[in-house]
Amino acid sequence: MKPILKGRAVVGQSGGCTAVINQSLAGVIEGVRGRREITALWGAAYGVNGILGDDYINLKSQSASVLKALGHTPSSALGSSRHKLPAGGEEEVLARLRRHDVRYLFMIGGNDTADTVLRIARAAEKENYELRVVHIPKTIDNDLKETDHTPGYGSVARFAAVTTQEAGLDTRAMKDVDPVKMIELMGRNSGWIVAASALLKKTQEDPPHLLLLPEIPFEEGRFLDRVEAVVRKTGHCVVVLSETIRDAQGNRIGALREGITQDPFGHVYVEGAARYLCRRVEERLKVRARFDKPGTIQRMSMPYVSTVDQREAFLAGVHAVRWALKGVTRVMVGFRRAPGKLYRIDYVPVPLEKIPNRERYLPENFLTSDSLMTTEAFKRYALPLLGPNLPSFPSLKR
Amino acid sequence: MKPILKGRAVVGQSGGCTAVINQSLAGVIEGVRGRREITALWGAAYGVNGILGDDYINLKSQSASVLKALGHTPSSALGSSRHKLPAGGEEEVLARLRRHDVRYLFMIGGNDTADTVLRIARAAEKENYELRVVHIPKTIDNDLKETDHTPGYGSVARFAAVTTQEAGLDTRAMKDVDPVKMIELMGRNSGWIVAASALLKKTQEDPPHLLLLPEIPFEEGRFLDRVEAVVRKTGHCVVVLSETIRDAQGNRIGALREGITQDPFGHVYVEGAARYLCRRVEERLKVRARFDKPGTIQRMSMPYVSTVDQREAFLAGVHAVRWALKGVTRVMVGFRRAPGKLYRIDYVPVPLEKIPNRERYLPENFLTSDSLMTTEAFKRYALPLLGPNLPSFPSLKR
User: Fold this and answer.
1) Do B296 and A292 make contact, defined as CB atoms within 8 angstroms?
2) Is B299 within 8 Å of chain A by CB?
3) Could you say which of A133, A221, A275, B73 is the most buried, measured as most Cβ atoms within 10 Å of its Cβ?
4) CATH of A7-152+303-354 given 3.10.350.10, 3.40.50.450, 3.10.180.10, 3.30.1850.10
5) A3: burial class by Cβ within 10 Å (0-12, 13-18, 19+)?
6) A residues 230-269 lying closer than 8 A (beta carbon) to B
7) Residue to substitute from A60, A61, A300, interface B, most B β-carbons within 10 A
8) How far, in Å, are A79, B117, B123, B147 from residue B90 at the CA level?
9) Chain A environment of B54 (Cβ under 8 Å)
10) Of A75, A172, A290, the CB nearest to B173
């Protein structure tokens, strides 16, 4: 146990927003409550920009009603940013923090944020300034290493799983009109979100019928063959794809096409993966294909939020403060799944060095041999993250 | 009171699906329960196609658990269709119904369905075959005449209103990265759904910042000026638009562009309204613009469903059966709002002749003078349709 360290605390949010990032903020506020070592809790506006610009929100002076609503408000209440610190920028950040006697820094973010936080922690060590730094993970992409999963993923996974069943019912009922549907989801370079769309699939006839993942090079001929086979068999086909699928050469699908990259005014022309695939399906199968692209709605939707995700995001914030007060620093709050059949998460400090510039992809055993569908092993991993009360939509008996 | 008419009943669903169309089906099943005049209740598979192909689902033999889940299952449980009867097709339909001694026909659908149903009713009258025909309205577009609103609209309106606040929070928090967002919604030729996106807007800074409606010819210069002004003032801008906006000449925005309508292989190229507008904003403002296009998710989402919409859709089905048993025929179940401050709907029979080939657009007093935002009058009209427990997302105090 290190000696008591007295000073101010700063908390920030960074990177893409989620439906539960404010739960982690609420967890930090809860952790700080009543702890005299922390003389003030300031929220940095728009991530590290708030520190650089001395732009803070006093989190101890917020009304009880706002604090109560905070955890149920999606997006980032402090404002977020993707600002990458220039070389040496961490020293500027540290100077600002020192000027305000800040001794605790909590950043809620992903991969890039972890890098920023690590640089700040190292700068403080170099200057022998005691600053306790804890990174609180956050990303819908679920692509951080050294943790079972990341807060934010469970909720977007629930959105993907449930809306795919719902929108799939639309396609099944309208198969005479619009038999092919694409649902384009997020996920950066990994297919965790797209994979989650299959979590409530029970039979072969249930949607989704095939998945297109960024990890798997897209082969157009094979894709069209498969869509055609599914339509022949079940009368309709629901494809869930990542917006970042690529071909074997690494080119984004629907991003650029030879001969049509510019309009007559020289404007670059981006079609998007789902629309491109719809067009190719229509040309080949001579049936209509439509696409849904929920975009930021998938990561902001509160009615689809996972209560498990909410609770874990909150506890990650609580643990960050608890550890820092005990002297722990330069760590990320890692999630470790307890062994056994019952789902339970333990929170463990992970050295921050292990996080930046690494990404976690879907492991092989989570995908079927043709890479077009997920396995039971994936379901065992991901289903508990969605929370309870999952819907089920029975069909009329014929 | 007409004499008792004994025979079978057929119910069908037609046109685009909604989150509550199965509530109307459940209402018909409930209405028929215990009524001996109706000897059987058959659901026609895929609308009128089921009648033409003798493809029925026996609705009296369904299990209690399936019937209980039915109303909470989106899409059309019987299957839907957009099949337009060819000239004389109504006689073929009638012949099929007569063969099975069908005396009651309930069709749940929109504009086009009303036309089909009317033709069948007229054919029966011509042949002096007593067939009681009631049309149960259904369309997310809310564009039917002679009714205060249509079942299905309240739920998609709730989806539009809430997700615009949610996704708007994302844009506000990420304004340094993605300051402009488009949300592309449905609505055919009317802007009822897009208008609903503004129902939870409280201040000028709240999203949406402008609306693009199919009723109002799109002017690109004026649009770009307005987006630029909003971004200058609030740092970000959320635009909600209909996928069917048109210019003054009636051309769909983003559908075809001169010089780039075909790729080198001769494929027609459709960009879509939101993507087109994003591109134009990026060229003009030199900032990133993104779009969300929830597509069929907006009409299938159960977590965003309006409980008011659910109840009304159910009661529309119940009334249809009740009226038909009393001898009422060739009507649609119309919704009439009771006068006074308290929201209440009375169900009234509307002559079916008044429905087909007419569309209802947003009236002038529901739009501000620049046609870019809705008025308080629209809020008074539409807010009760969303149901209770609307979320509110307070901001941290600075």
Assistant:
1) yes
2) yes
3) B73
4) 3.40.50.450
5) exposed
6) 257-260, 263-264, 267, 269
7) A300
8) 60, 9, 7, 26
9) none
10) A75
ipTM of this complex prediction, to 2 decimal places: 0.96
State whether residue A213 is helix, strand or coil: coil
The string of pLDDT tens digits covering residues A63-119 is 999 999 999 999 999 999 988 899 999 999 999 999 999 999 999 999 999 999 999
Tell me the chain B residues in contact with residue A69 when contact means C-beta distances shorter than 8 Å: 392-394
Residue B302's closest chain A neighbor by CA? A166
CATH number for the domain whose boundaries are B158-302+363-384: 3.40.50.460
Q: Is the pLDDT of residue A266 over 60?
A: no
Domain ranges of chain B: 7-152+303-354, 158-302+363-384
* Minimum distance, in Å, between the CA of residue B7 and any CA atom of chain A: 21
- Under the phi-then-psi rule, with left for phi > 0, alpha for psi from -120 to 50, and beta for the rest, what region is A15? left
**Which pTM was predicted?**
0.97
Nearest to B170 among A49, A83, A296 (CB): A296
Question: Which chain A residues have a beta carbon less than 8 Å from that of B283?
Answer: 267
- Cα dihedral across residues B317, B318, B319, B323: positive or negative: positive
The CATH code of the domain at A157-301+363-386 is 3.40.50.460
Of B46, B169, B257, the CB nearest to A263: B257
- Is residue A278 exposed (0-12), middle (13-18) or buried (19+ Cβ within 10 Å)? buried
User: Scanning the structure block, which residue is given the tokens 């006697």?
Assistant: A101
Q: How would you label A198-221 residue by residue, b for 16+ Cβ within 10 Å and e otherwise?
A: bbbbeeeebbbbbbbbbbbebeee
Give the nearest chain A residue to B264 (CA atoms): A259
Least confident span in A269-273, A317-321, B136-140, B159-163 = A269-273
Residue A259: closest C-alpha in chain B:
B264
Q: Å from A338 to nearest chain B CA? A: 31
B54 catalytic per annotation: no
* Residues of A in Cβ contact (< 8 Å) with B20: none
Residue among A296, A304, A393 whose CB faces B292 most closely: A296
Strand A180-185 relative to strand A210-212: parallel, antiparallel, unpaired? unpaired
Q: Which two tokens stand for residue B12?
A: 């069908």
Phi/psi at B271 (nearest 5 deg)? Answer: -90, -35
Cα distances (Å, whole numbers) of residue A330 to A95, A100, A145, B362: 18, 20, 16, 58
Tokens of A90: 């961490």
Whether A319 and chain B come into contact, CB under 8 Å, resolves to no
Contact between B162 and A43 using a beta-carbon 8 Å cutoff: no
On chain B, the residues whose CB falls within 8 A of the CB of A81 are 174, 176-177
SS3 call for B50:
helix
- The token pair at B2 is 């007409």
A7-152+303-354 and A157-301+363-386, same CATH topology: yes
Determine phi and psi for A296, rounding to 5 degrees.
Answer: -70, -15
Nearest CA in chain B to A79: B173
For chain B, 398 residues long, give each residue's pLDDT as a single digit of tens. 567 999 999 999 999 999 999 999 999 999 999 999 999 999 999 999 999 999 999 999 999 999 999 999 999 999 999 888 999 999 999 999 999 999 999 999 999 999 999 999 999 999 999 999 999 999 999 999 999 999 999 999 999 999 999 999 999 999 999 999 999 999 999 999 999 999 999 999 999 999 999 999 999 999 999 999 999 999 999 999 999 999 999 989 987 654 444 444 455 557 899 999 998 999 999 999 999 999 999 999 999 999 999 999 999 999 999 999 999 999 999 999 999 999 999 999 999 999 999 999 999 999 999 999 999 999 999 999 999 999 999 999 98
